Structure prediction request, 388 residues.
Amino acid sequence: MKRTRHQSGYVFHQGGFWYVRYYDNVMNAEGEIERQQKCRKLVAYGSQYRTQRDVRSLADELLKPINDGTHTPESTMTVADFIEKHYLPHVEQQKRRVSTYRGYRNVWSRYLKTRTPIALRDFRTFDGNRLLLDIARNESLSRRTLGHIKSMLSGVFTHALRQGILNTPNPMRDVEIPKGKANSETHAYALEEIMRMLAVLPQPVKAIVAAAAFTGARKGELRGFLWENYDGEQISITQSVWRSHVGEPKTVTSKAPIPVIAPLKDFLEWHRIAAGNPATGLMFPNSLGRPLNFDELAFRVIKPAFTKAGIAWHGWHAFRRGLATNLYRLGVKDKTIQAILRHSNISLTMNIYVKSVTPDARAAMQQLESFYATNMQRSTKDSETVLQ
Prediction:
């Protein structure tokens, strides 16, 4: 690292305060390094600070990072400039999932862009606390979302440290996450709801909903299901589709295969026969052979059918939460539920995905499961194909 020549600065007092004037190498708006004269306030004049000697130690402390090379010219970039010009391009290049990058960009543009004009080197834990408090006061966000914002900012400073732009501890490490608004209650589809759904839906939508309900796969993973990854007993997860982008699953553990229960197997076999017994390709394509738009399917087919039958639609992810909750009600062990949902952390499975339920007699639930499996085939009547 290139060191600047040692300087002691010029200390003076004016208007009731002590100041120090010094030179610093900074990065200008064009990304070029130039030497500029700076002036910083040190302390109020008076009491124990009446002479230049009294405030010399304060000036030396301020100039030390410049004199010993700890501060780099690049660290004079604002946090906003660094995120836009360096961090987000890094995320786009390194992250495998397009949705992750888009999420970071949304956080940046909505909550951080106008709130981070401060230089990287001047950003302290205090600034991080103040920033999150400002966002919490002015935006209707949950504590979980505020935690995501803190995590992103922590990643910003970690990247600056790895690039040698900063040589100080990550200022976001000890930032406290504000309370935020209460998290809205999420829904988990019960077995009883799923049975009613499958009774009113046409094929092949039955197969899609059954796959969502009995594999617990994420929407993007469902859209990426491939026939060659299904052997009649389990489905391997090798891809995930977000909008029109095909990428890898969310995590390493997400690639674990998912067991297929007998009722789902029946639905998939019916769907396969109706599709011409394909050996490879997407399980649920649109008419052009591309991944089906599940949100459009819900709007065009599922919601109208549910509204007519008096069934509430809570979105695709409620099937994933539902599987966790239904397995828990049936007495399945926590670690087994975690493995089926392919979570890397069991606390995520139990705290977020398993919803509280009223005490159920296990025998009754087992009877329900048996009844469901026995009567599943009765709801698989041939219906008009609705996928375009």
Remarks:
- The chain has three domains: 10-71, 79-162, 191-379.
